[in-house]
Fold this protein.
Amino acid sequence: MKRKILIHAIARWPKLTATFLILGLWDFATPYVSVYYSDKADGELSYTWITDHRISRGGIRPGGATGDSGHIFQKKDFFMYFQWWDNAGISGCVNIDPQWPETTIFIDANGRIDLNVKGATDVKRFSPCPGGEDPDFLGLARPVE
């Protein structure tokens, strides 16, 4: 009976069905970037995502995560930056080239990108932010002046 109702709805509203199907596929095909913060960290990190002229800000508590989606059809001038910092002087910024289905970055308890051999960070998918003054973009603590 339920199958009969579903087939009837698809036959009766094909444009609506096609619209939902396209939106579902579009969402599935969009590359996504996830950033995970170590649960062993002491304090919250503040962050800024800048994705092709879209900006979002927030905070990540220890053990938390954040993420943003890229574009399905990335133009040559597409960019995605993730910048993080805390009040203890830790900061970092990476330029991310998202790849389908997901690009993953882990930030350790010291605020650095986790480059552990067993880590799941996609190191091939990111590079330093352009114009960065600090040659080490992996989130090292800045010396106190």
